[in-house]
Amino acid sequence: MAEFENPYATNDPFVEAHFDCLNCGGKLWEYAIQRQMVCEDCRSLFSTEEVFEAQSTETAEATA
Ligand SMILES: [Zn+2]
Fold it and tell me: Pairing relation of β-strands 27-31 and 36-39?
């Protein structure tokens, strides 16, 4: 599988990621240290690979 270079994971420990929680559909935040994402609602942890596989066709929208 292609590796994903996260352009945001340089400084901030948490970066808002434009992905939805696979459990509850809440907003996922990327936890750059572990390359994981955490849901702000149910606090589930997902690996970035897991999320990308599930939502690989979703393109991040610009933040309003
Ligand atoms: Zn959730």
Answer: antiparallel
Question: How many whole angstroms from 11 Cα to the centroid of ligand 1?
Answer: 24
Find the domain containing 20 and state its range. Answer: 14-54
Whether the full predicted model's pTM is greater than 0.70, yes or no, is no
Per-residue pLDDT tens over the stretch 4-53? 666 555 555 566 667 889 999 999 988 766 788 889 999 999 998 888 88
2 within a domain of the structure (yes/no): no
* Position 36 in a domain: yes
CA of 28 to the centre of ligand 1 (A): 7
The answer to whether the Cα torsion of 49, 25, 58, 32 is positive or negative is: negative
Question: How far does the centroid of ligand 1 lie from the alpha carbon of residue 24, in Å?
Answer: 4
